[in-house]
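Hi, here's the filled form for the chain we discussed.

Project: internal
Contact: R.S.
Residues: 201
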Amino acid sequence: MSCLRRGGHVLKALVTGLCALVLCATPAAAQAGTSAGLGGQLARHIAAMQKSTLVIRFFEKHRWLLSDPRFQKEATLRLRLAKRTLAASRAKAERNRVRIARQRAEQEHRRLVAELRGSPEKAICHVFGSYCGEALRVARCESGYSVSAQNGQYLGLFQMGSNERRLFGHGESALEQAQAAFRYFVRSGRDWSPWSCKPWY
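And the returned structure, exactly as it came back:
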């Protein structure tokens, strides 16, 4: 059924506004259904933001509703609610985006670890890039490419000590150990000075 009926200009504008309010006030969850997961949650928050924005824009174009004694109370309430909902939905959407980005990063990390698990050499070259050759020679000398190599407090592919592991990290996989060694390598000036083994002998 159409919201518009015959009548004066003011009545037509009022009824049009009220129809818009009813449409915009429909809960976002009703539109999104029961979508599961972070992607579904983000979609619901975005839908709520869009609805709230429509309400706010409507009142920006029909400011007279906020000052007309006949509609002021309801219009002010609707506008205030839309602004609160917009702010809350923005915050929730941002939290969801952060969680989705973190989840994707973790998935990518797990994929890389699985891909490089069987080859410490590939993990080292993946991390060290143009320094691949040097890093391979150092790791071969330090540990024989063994992630479980240990010499006192020194562990892993690059035989990093306890203090260095605390500062730059460590892990069970070749990828994690290579990443920690690369951070140490960069911090120390990229000259291999912290390691007993050097790439040139």
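Let me know if anything looks off before we file it.
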